């Protein structure tokens, strides 16, 4: 139920009529597939080739899923532009969702996010200390709009946190 509440919260945070969604650490597309109606183009990236195969299994023409390490966020966007899949004005209405492992974002991924500078950044974290570290590194480029904790695992110390940021 909490996973669905998290997904619904993300759906509510993303405005309609967006150009590009980049779902980093997308797995089988849990967030991306729920947001298809809001975007012209969706790019999902995950290192797990089996999850990517599942995402591709029922993908629409507007979805591209890439099995690649997340250091490739900037690469994926460049590839989409080079192939003509993305309009040159797409970054004006781009949303990036990141849902990294407990270790958070690597320095290279934080740099790629800063360089990409999507209009909206949604960060889902299972580890508040690494989220705080990453937000500290990203704060010079993004403003925090909201932070929402979700008790995904009741009666434990584990929580999911959703941070909603704008460039």
Q: What is the residue-mean pLDDT, rounded to a whole number? A: 87
Number of helices: 5
Distance between the termini: 31 Å
Low-confidence stretches: none
Helical residue percent band: 25-40%
Structural class given helices, strands, pairing?
alpha/beta
What percent strand?
25-35%
What's the number of extended β-strand segments?
7
Dominant shape: globular
What gyration radius follows from the Cα positions, in whole Å?
Answer: 15 Å
Major β-sheet strand ordering: 3-2-1-4-5-7-6
Describe the structure concisely for a colleague.
This protein is of the alpha/beta class and 167 residues long.
Question: Explain this structure to me?
Answer:
It is a single chain. The chain is an alpha/beta fold and 167 residues long. 31% of the residues lie in helices and 28% in strands. It has 5 helices and 7 strands; from the N terminus they run αββαβαβαβαββ. The chain has helices spanning 2-13, 49-57, 73-82, 107-116, 128-138; strands at 18-24, 39-46, 63-67, 94-98, 120-125, 143-150, 160-166. The chain has a 7-stranded mixed sheet, sandwiched between helices. Strand 4, helix 4 and strand 5 form a beta-alpha-beta unit. The model has no long low-confidence stretch (mean pLDDT 87).
